[in-house]
Amino acid sequence: xxxxxxxxxxxxxxxxxxxxxxxxxxxxxxxxxxxxxxxxxxxxxxxxxxxxxxxxxxxxxxxxxxxxxxxxxxxxxxxxxxxxxxxxxxxxxxxxxxxxxxxxxxxxxxxxxxxxxxxxxxxxxxxxxxxxxxxxxxxxxxxxxxxxxxxxxxxxxxxxxxxxxxxxxxxxxxxxxxxxxxxxxxxxxxxxx
Length: 193
Fold this sequence. Notes:
This protein is mainly alpha-helical. The chain has helices at residues 18-39, 45-74, 95-101, 113-118, 121-148, 154-173, 178-187, and strands at 14-16, 79-85, 106-111. It has one domain (14-186). Strands 1-2-3 form a three-stranded antiparallel β-sheet. Helix 5 (121-148) packs antiparallel against helix 6 (154-173) and helix 5 packs antiparallel against helix 7 (178-187). The termini are far apart. 34% of the residues are buried.
């Protein structure tokens, strides 16, 4: 008789303070922007392509949770810390992508539960929507910029970005995704006393 397969244990996540997480992510976006600037300058094709890819990835990995935090704080939501590890909702993605997303160094912003409980619905929904919105906007601007500057490989990055961001939006619409959570929050009605 075969025993049932064990449930997969999530990979451990590194915990960092809100201050440290913000510094790391802002620095990552700044370095990503610098690399993108380097990619549009005249020079070696290899350096320009490497700078373009590195810059895009730094912006991709550092914009999502920073936008959750920024919009959350603007709407009055407090955060306890960040964690770094695989995607917090990798199950939203197809199997091959899921196994990759479980291992990538994504930041995750962790809200203070009492603050979330007290926050109005619109604040919670905006905080959830902000992550994917920020990622799509920042990455699309980055890919359009290198494309418009005729960076070698820029058209390939633009096409990749359009496909990638569309698939990310589809994944985020799922119930475990950020857009799915925002939709659920906005559908929830409060019972009269």
